[in-house]
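Question:
Now give any protein.
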Amino acid sequence: MQKKWISMVLILSLLFSAFAAALPAGATSFLRGDLDENGVLNALDALELVKYLAGASDWVALDLADVNGDGAITALDNLELKRHLAGAIDITETYPVPDTNVGEITIAGENIGNYTIVAANPDNANILFAAEELQKYVKEACGRTLALEQGTSHAPHQIILCENDGSRNLGDDGFSITVSGGTLTIMGGAARGAMYGVYELLEEYIGYRFLGYDDKVLYTATQVDLPNGMRDEQVPTVRYRCITIDPYANDYTYSSVIKRKLSGCTSQPSMLRPEYGYGIQRVFLNAHSLDYFIPDVEVPCLSSEDSYETCLSNMKALLDERIAAGGVVGKDITEISCAYSAEGRFCTCAECSAIYQEEGSQAGVLVPFVNRMDEALRAAYPGIRVITNAYGDVRIPPQNVVLNEEVVLLYCWNGCANHPIGSGECEEGGNSLGYSNTQEEAYYLGWTEHCSQTYIWYYPTNIYYLLCPQPNLMNLYNDFVWFMEHKAVGFYVVGTAGSSFEGLDAYLISELIWDGGMVEEEYICHMEEYLEAYYGPGWSYIYTYIEMLTQAGDEMGCVLNDYEYPFDIYSKTYFAEHFDEMIALFDAAAAACETDWERENIRRLSAHMLFLGYSATYEERYVNGTADQRAAYAEGYQAWYDMVNELGIRVTYTQTGIEKAFSLAVSPMQLVYEIDGQR
């Protein structure tokens, strides 16, 4: 992607100086009724307001003239200003300006309150939405309410949001932010670019951080200036950006998906709204689609002409149904899946078997079939994109056949979460189920010779044992960069959220797949910002704990990224030896908190640490411990059990809280999961 116009040095300077300084609240930059902005309310202000209401002047700053703060400029504002001048009221007390974090925002030195937002393409619902978002967050940041106009404007100072005029290669999601001659222009790709440009302006220049759900941070600053000559042009590294980890795949699509510049909506159907730019929607999900399109057979034969005709007919019927319901190809209908079942059931007829023997993979049977579907569907529905899967045995690439250039291969990665991809650190033979990055890399790189573009199906969380996060926070940067360096143009990130670092996983991945050129130092900076936002001034203690998790994982071998038992993922011995130190880190972080929200976040986070620690020390401290050790263990174990149920912490894919009654007869691992923690 094209890099931002500001350097990394300047980014870090902004993060840790202007925005990090704690300022007194209420450092606002305007006074209601002060139309000439001289800091004094007098008859000249009343005259300017009368002239505007009479049509003798065509522009005033909205929030200066809106004396009573009701969002409109009317005769009531004139009346209230006159009452103030007569001494009947004090405007500063009757209509106070709310406290804000940013004292003043200026564009080329001009106060942003004197600007009008212009949605230059009002028929584009996404641009109108972006304009409203900018208006809302500027008001929240510095107290100024900007006028919003559609089409064209005669306002003397303008922030223009517009579609790409063809002068830049912005695709659907890219944008440019420029300031020239005092005019701020956000030009975006027609689908979602202006919206993403607004969020970038809010984050990188005004000081917001949109973290997930409705959680956000706005750093304090005395002044933020967007100077003449500023230029920031960005095009995302990958096209399809879909994260289904809670809290990202939920009803808070606006907060968790849109603001994080995610474009894929396979599991976020509420994203399919024009104001959000629709997102990239797969008509049928990622696996099993051939079972749906070729029904009534146990195993579809892809060398059969009947199978081809049946599949094509049913695909067209589904697309026609969506179109008849108002769908538009290229907007809310963009992709369709044509993929084998994930169960690994394949036809064994003579023709399919011969192809399999020649190609060395079931993919050899699939690829020609998918290519025919692609050609037929694109001819009938220009703009549709066919997706097929490398899932299970189909991960083995074919020898000869090649997917059409327009077809996307969705590769379901089944590698190791404990070692960075491409590092060569995986053991011979891989994990207990035979998976390793070494084998997976060979499969994937083989496939890249037989397709032109890939999406990656990636599991960063432990789906089944939610009280055991994966030790991969330090590996995610390497993994996603590796994929993007090897033909990946999209990511389907799947996971289940418990009470540990799943939200952080989702946040960091959303940053990575927008900016594939991110350096590792910036990735760590994003992690630290997130930790500080959620866990407060003592966030560094949590960072140290993450480093300990990494070490506990490093003492084990290869780990299948979403399926291993907890003590196959982490060294039980390491947790037993360092459990007290981990508790001390969480206690220190909690002691440094400034808000109850931060303390509650740390308490929730501790659930998995205590689970693993009490499970690792059960034999030593309770079964074989001294009387004092047994008593302390029993008290801590009980307190942990009660906390999990009190907070409703998710422990499995489907279970919240612990269903079984508390018992010291078994360890927490046995109580919750009925296992010893190792296979």
The CA atoms of residues 38 and 390 lie 67 Å apart.
